[in-house]
Amino acid sequence: MAQHSTCLSPFCGYWADRYLATCPRCGRMMRPDDEIVGRGGHVVWCGLILVAAMGGVAWALGPKVLQALTDPLAPAAPRPTVLQAQLAIGLILLMFAGGVAFLLNGIVMVARARPMRWLTLAGISCIVLAALAALGFAATTLA
Ligand SMILES: [Zn+2]
């Protein structure tokens, strides 16, 4: 099997059909096929853990949050505001979506020895937006 090299920067993603130690486009380290496949296995596990954890949280808390927001006879306290519920649901869904993106990218990395840059960027974007939702949620509880 011919050796290839991939730049792991999600903003570069340069690929070469030979071994290169550093990326000629951005200067970061290049990784050979076998290392991409190994990292892909780790990315699959990270994605699975995120999907299972956030799916479990959504499954356990979703009905309670919806009931607290829509049932006028639900106990008054602690009752989330609509904004808090939106931020919490957004946080869970973004973490879940990031997990799906990492899971798919890991499968692609194992199968092709090459990541899909848009899946990497999608996963990172979901996690960053989820962190912003968490900060927003924290800000609403402190106010
Ligand atoms: Zn690069």
Give the helices and strands, then pairings.
Blueprint: E1 5-7, E2 15-16, E3 30-32, H1 33-70, H2 82-112, H3 117-142
Antiparallel strand pairs: 1-2, 1-3
Helix pairs in contact: 1-2, 2-3
Description:
The chain has 143 residues and is mainly alpha-helical. The protein has one domain. It is 66% helix and 6% strand. Helix 2 (82-112) packs antiparallel against helix 3 (117-142). The protein binds zinc ion. Zinc ion is lined by residues 7, 9, 12, 14, 23, 25-26, 28. The site of zinc ion has 8 residues, from loops.
Task: Quickly list its features.
143 residues; mainly alpha; 3-stranded antiparallel sheet; 6% strand; binds zinc ion
Uncertain spans: none
Strand-residue proportion: 5-15%
Q: Tell me which ligands are bound.
A: zinc ion
Number of helices: 3
How would the global form be characterised?
A: elongated
Q: What's this, in brief?
A:
With 143 residues, this protein is mainly α. It contains three helices and three strands, in the order βββααα.
